[in-house]
Amino acid sequence: PKSTNFTDTDDGIWGYAVSGTPADCVKIAYWALLQEHKPDLLISGINHGSNTGLNVIYSGTVSAATEGTILNIPSFAISLTTYEEADFSFAAKFARKLATVILQNGLPVGTYLNVNVPAVPENQIRGIAITRQGQAVYREKFEQRKDPQNKTYYWLTGYKINLENDGPDTDDYAILNNMISITPVHYDLTNYQFLDKLKQWKLKLE
Fold first, then answer.
1. Is residue 21 part of a domain?
2. Are 74 and 102 within 8 A, CB to CB?
């Protein structure tokens, strides 16, 4: 079961807090909370931390945009590339600008945008790069610890490895060079180039 709680602010912004994943939020909003007024656009984020490279596969922020796209809602995910305390105002301003452009131009069926904004002052942003997803990965480390009841648990730490041969057209390269990265993503994960080769295996039940 998923629970929802209505919330609002003094400046008139209202919404619902949902006990679930970002994709759950989209599902509940579309099928339950917004039945009479379907959204024209879905913005997932602003995430606190980057969603570049292979991290896209695990991202809850990106998954919400995926769900929106499955529901035929023009969608994009946006992230600010830091886990430290940060100013989100420029990322929010850019999100509003991009939202307007998407509503004017639309997106291809099954496609959404993954946007990453460098966590630097606005006057240090060098521009916008249309990128592909890189292959950067995290070197993960699990620290074994004990809780007050002496039960074992693991604390995940690690750091990102930016591959030197990833290429200047990738999302991580753009971020490292203080450029906003915009990557078109689609939810069809089929490797079409491998289909014919896989058929040549002639797999059988016996």
1. no
2. yes
pLDDT higher for 109 or 13?
109
Does residue 206 fall inside a structural domain?
Answer: no
CA distance 96 to 78: 11
Q: What token pair was written down for 197?
A: 């080769």
Q: What are the residue ranges of helices labelled H in the chain?
A: 22-28, 55-58, 60-70, 89-105, 171-176, 192-199
Q: Amino acid identity of 47? A: N
pLDDT band at 164 (very low <50, low <70, confident <90, very high): low
Please compute the mean of the pLDDT values over residues 151-168 and round it to a whole number. Answer: 83
Average pLDDT over residues 13-27: 94
Instruction: Say how far residue 16 (Cα) sits from the centre of its chain.
Output: 20
The verdict on residue 13 lying in a domain is no
Residue 52 belongs to a domain with what CATH number?
Answer: 3.40.1210.10
